[in-house]
Amino acid sequence: MNILNLPAWSVLDTRETDHDYHITVQLSYPPSHCPHCGVVANLQGYGGKEQLFLDLPIQMKRVAILVQRRRFKCKECKRTFLELLPDMDEDHLMTRRLVVYIQEQSLNRTFVDVADLVGVDEKTVRLIFKDYVKGLEAAYSFITPPTLGIDELHLIGKPRCILTNVEQRTIIDMLKDRNQDTVQKYLSKLQEGYRVEVVCMDMWRPYRQAVAAVLPNATVVVDKFHIQRMANDALEGVRKALRESLSDKRRRTLKKDRYILLRRKHDLKDEDMIILESWTHNFPTLGAAYNAKEDFFKIWDETDRQAAEDKYTVWRNNLPLEVADHFESIITAMTNWYDPIFAYFDTGLTNAYTEALNGLVKVINRTGRGYSFEAIRAKILYSAGLHKQHRPIVRKSIREKPSPPDEEQPVNFGTDISTLTKQLRLGTFHALSTH
What we know:
Elements: E1 9-16, E2 20-27, E3 43-58, E4 61-74, E5 80-82, E6 88-89, E7 94-95, H1 96-108, H2 111-118, H3 122-139, E8 147-155, E9 158-165, E10 170-174, H4 180-188, E11 198-201, H5 205-214, E12 219-222, H6 224-245, H7 248-251, H8 257-261, H9 270-282, H10 284-298, H11 305-317, H12 321-336, H13 338-342, H14 344-347, H15 352-356, H16 361-367, H17 373-382, E13 387-390, E14 411-416, H18 417-426
Parallel strand pairs: 2-4, 8-11, 11-12
Antiparallel strand pairs: 1-2, 3-4, 4-5, 6-7, 8-9, 9-10, 10-14, 13-14
């Protein structure tokens, strides 16, 4: 045992500076046999060379290990070789434990921080992390869900595609962007893609085109909250236009107007209803827009598809002219996405829980400031304690045919959204470690 705590090595010299340790070492015992012919103990020294390897920090100082590596010649086969180096990763010129340390720290720190901490180039950290993630991906598997959710998160300045198991409320993957080519390539590599029966999505056309190309038999369902949000946006457009036309004095009478107008009428308190009635009386256009918004939301109160379609037809035909321009985008969307929108009434499925993640993006961006998308994706997908698993019940009756071994393995549904949400809110997401 020595300062390095590596039993196979003998420390020949140690030098300490303000920021570093320089440690010269040699293997404690020479090789016992020739690696070429396998002859035991018939070797002679044949020079050697020095090699520099980096190691874990000691007392907050970077560590450089100078290995006195010996060369030997086999008297039997006459070939020479350098002694093997246990504990060393010759590809990265560092100890194996330092590689593991960088892998783990790259999930919890920025690459720049890790590089400065251990005394390597940032590119080296990135390469180690990239290889690490490849290994995690190779070991990561999940069951392809019958109901697939495709949505997006705005993460690190870009919209990213997020794929979910709708019924299990889990995240199964995150993609670098939401382009059709990216999504289509992912879906084409999905294991057991035939299992997907329904795909819930927002009204982003590339998602629909990707699904049509790869999963043509799957039913596409537009998340109702996306189309409902458009009604709120239309009302918001009327409200802003009205406020711009008013004097400062009259504008002050609309205090808290956005809070009240965007709520459903049945959710308003009595005092809010009084305020709303005064607004709709004094500003008829605002009242017309609010009623149009409410009537549009009532379409989704129906439980029968035909009844919902009939109610939408009535709503569209009776839309007040003074606010029709603001609601035109809804009519266009309903026309272009008619079947996927009304397929909601056949399935009752939404991505509502996935949408809740958007409220936590600020937390992710704040705790992950300086991290790459790849690092955050790895933390979300591979961190221990986040996966939702189901272990099939093992049959105990001797009369029953035993389950095949693969059926006894726990099924991974992906990262549990509620658990991830809890970790984010508690501020412990950054400290998670991987399997």
